[in-house]
């Protein structure tokens, strides 16, 4: 654990390589840093409610034991979900464990209060960050395979 609380990168690396490890809460500063502050260059896809980033773990833990891990970090659009919906989604993902279903590694629910200008007035505003973290699947979208298959038959 980080002295300020939360999982460190090394712990995350070990977790990625341990298939029995349970999904955990991940600190926003860690995910933000790993995703290079959500650089456009790391975007691998967009869905109806999130942008997905490919995040490489640069092995800090013993390289002899671990390869670098790769994650898909899904950053939800700011306005998309209410708190109960996000919680429901995380609960549901935590229960699902199957070889044919992408592994869910963790989630992040972070709210920070920022002072910003709103119509000429300085106001305190909540900035919410909601992220879901999965193992990275290298072979593209299933949707693409199904579409190609349907065209070929
Ligand atoms: N675990 C993953 N590994 C690799 N690529 C992924 C992963 N998850 C998502 N992607 C990529 O990001 C794209 C968007 O994914 P996302 O799950 O946000 O949306 P979707 O499943 O296409 O649609 P919806 O918004 O209905 O969930 C996918 O089409 C895929 O290309």
TrEMBL record:
Native organism: Triticum turgidum subsp. durum (Durum wheat)
Pfam family of the protein (one): PK_Tyr_Ser-Thr
Keyword rRNA-binding attributed: no
Domain spans labelled Protein kinase: 38-153
Entries under SUPFAM superfamilies matching the protein: Protein kinase-like (PK-like) (SSF56112)
Name of the featured protein: Protein kinase domain-containing protein
Source organism superkingdom: Eukaryota
KW Repressor (keyword) present: no
Keywords, sorted A to Z: ATP-binding, Nucleotide-binding
Record-level Gene Ontology MF annotations: ATP binding; protein kinase activity
Binding annotation for ATP: 74
């Amino acid at each position: 654990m980080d002295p300020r609380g939360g999982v460190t990168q090394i712990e995350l690396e070990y977790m990625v390589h341990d298939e029995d490890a349970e999904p955990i809460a991940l600190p926003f500063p860690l995910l933000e840093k790993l995703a290079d502050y959500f650089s456009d260059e790391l975007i691998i896809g967009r869905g109806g409610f999130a942008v997905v980033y490919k995040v490489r773990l640069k092995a800090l833990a013993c390289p002899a034991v671990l390869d670098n891990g790769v994650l898909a970090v899904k950053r939800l659009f700011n306005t998309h979900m209410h708190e109960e919906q996000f919680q429901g989604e995380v609960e549901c993902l935590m229960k699902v464990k199957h070889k044919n279903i992408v592994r869910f590694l963790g989630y992040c629910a972070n709210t920070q209060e920022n002072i910003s200008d709103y119509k000429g007035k300085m106001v305190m505003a909540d900035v919410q960050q909601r992220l879901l973290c999965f193992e990275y699947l290298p072979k593209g979208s299933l949707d693409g395979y199904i579409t190609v298959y349907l065209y070929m038959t």
